[in-house]
Write a structure and sequence with these properties.
Blueprint (H helix, E strand, L loop, with lengths): L2 H16 L3 H4 L7 H6 L35 H18 L9 H26 L5 H14 L4 H5 L4 H30 L4 H22 L8 H11 L9 H5 L5
Length: about 250
């Protein structure tokens, strides 16, 4: 593992450690956690798995019900239900007294992985600028330690945010890596089958991650906007003055 890999691993360790204090990991369910976990029939395994796709995030009502919250986050619900089943199995609790420990552990782990993903995300986002690696590491450490994440990580309900961010970052990385590779091959006038297949696979991964991000939390729908915004300003090196020409079908 090179130095950059070690630093990235360090980012993940720091981010996870910040939320791994025993007081945090053994914290009770608070605020919205009652509605999303302890009072949620989907998470508490009181309904069949198939109901995840028909009920809203809070699990009380069908999406078609006028009383429904209308928030649809099945991927997040799946992770919470798996957490619950693990807690029941590992800690031998009954069905109504679930231990929050494993829920907090998974949130902390998500935050650690997301913080590490910020490194390649920033490297790709800035293109070939000077001190790119240092900028990426600074950004990742800032992301890992910034208190703005405390609610999303410490509250179990924040699973929606950390889960969405996980797929969001991977999707952007796949898209940016594919676009960068395409431009490098064009510049070198390379015609190779394998890179083309890898680029197609990266684009498929981008679309899959966008869908998973969207099904984790609704804000995941903005990932295509980020990709387009990045493509416009970084690889294409365009500016706002080019926008009218693009909108009417003109070129650079």
């Amino acid at each position: 593992m090179n130095n950059m890999g070690l630093w990235t691993l360090g980012v993940a360790v720091v981010a996870t450690a910040l939320y791994s204090h025993p007081t945090m990991l053994n914290g009770e369910f608070v605020y919205d956690d009652g509605g999303t976990v302890t009072q949620n029939p989907i998470v508490m395994a009181l309904t069949p798995w198939s109901q995840i796709w028909y009920r809203d995030f809070w699990g009380q009502y069908q999406l078609s019900d006028p009383m429904s919250h209308k928030s649809f986050r099945p991927i997040t619900s799946i992770t919470l239900r798996l957490n619950y089943l693990h807690a029941v199995w590992a800690f031998e609790k009954n069905l109504t007294n679930v231990d929050p420990y494993s829920f907090h552990c998974v949130n902390a782990a998500f935050h650690g992985v997301n913080s590490a993903l910020v490194v390649p995300t920033t490297q790709l986002a800035f293109g070939r600028v000077a001190h790119r690696d240092r900028i990426a590491l600074f950004t990742a450490f800032l992301f890992a330690t910034h208190p703005v994440h405390s609610e999303a990580v410490q509250n179990v309900t924040g699973r929606a945010e950390v889960c969405m961010a996980f797929f969001f970052l991977i999707g952007f990385i796949a898209y940016a890596a594919a676009v960068t590779q395409v431009r490098e091959h064009r510049a070198a006038r390379a015609r190779r089958l394998l890179p083309s297949l890898l680029q197609c696979a990266a684009m498929v991964m981008t679309m899959v991650c966008m869908l998973l991000s969207l099904l984790s939390k609704e804000i995941g729908a903005t990932m295509p906007c980020l990709c387009a915004f990045w493509d416009f300003f970084i690889p294409s090196q365009l500016s706002l003055k080019h926008l009218p020409l693009l909108l009417v079908g003109g070129g650079r």
